[in-house]
Write a sequence for this structure.
């Protein structure tokens, strides 16, 4: 059974043992530690999945993924919107200057105007995520893929 933890607690997926994180301490009883929110899908995972479904090599797929990411970054730097039908829209928005507070001292801090990237999911993506039972991911599918890859 998966136990979800917050803050400085971690949970090992293999042994379901909760451990407290202390500064400078590493836990070697297992190799897979996850933070609350479930396992993250990394760029390497995306490359592996696309390579498996398309039949391309991982090197070729990695170049495509890197090219896509670079294209999105370049477009956002130029102030363009990127719309991917059925997925969502990336755009850069301008945040107005404001006054914030230093949480440690409580003093006011002026925060200058800045541009920030934002992503707005499409209706289709939101509907598919909502229909996914709302259960936190277990990571079992990801673990099975890693085991398959190791065996190959």
């Amino acid at each position: 059974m998966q136990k979800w933890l917050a803050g400085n607690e971690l949970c090992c997926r293999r042994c379901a043992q909760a451990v407290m994180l202390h500064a400078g301490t590493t836990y070697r009883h297992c190799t897979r530690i996850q933070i609350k929110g479930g396992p993250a899908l990394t760029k390497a995972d995306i490359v592996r999945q696309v390579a498996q479904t398309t039949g391309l090599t991982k090197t070729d797929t990695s170049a495509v993924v890197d090219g896509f990411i670079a294209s999105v970054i370049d477009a956002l730097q130029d102030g363009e919107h990127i719309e991917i039908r059925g997925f969502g829209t990336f755009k850069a928005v301008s945040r107005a200057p404001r006054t914030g507070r230093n949480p440690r001292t409580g003093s006011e801090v002026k925060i200058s105007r800045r541009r920030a990237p934002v992503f707005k999911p499409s209706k289709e993506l939101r509907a598919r995520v909502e229909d996914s039972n709302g259960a936190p991911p277990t990571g079992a599918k990801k673990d099975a893929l890693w085991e398959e890859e190791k065996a190959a």
